[in-house]
Design a protein that fits this description.
Elements (H helix, E strand, L loop, with lengths): L5 E2 L7 E2 L8 H10 L7 E2 L7 E2 L2 H9 L8
Antiparallel strand pairs: 1-2, 3-4
Amino acid sequence: MLGDALLHPKGQALALLPEQYCEDAKQLARSLRQLLDVDFQTLTFAHGEPIVGQARAQLAALLKPSRKKKP
């Protein structure tokens, strides 16, 4: 279901498809956030190792907006 939207190379953290390969990175993130409405524990990928257990939590952490302080 995820196709190339997310990557999880062996030994590396879960990551979004790099922007250079994505026509609309903001839309990609919005689409992936919709998955957080579903209760799941496993993610499989076209590229990388599956995440078995706590997959939803890892996706939520990846998609959480960073809160950078403005000077």
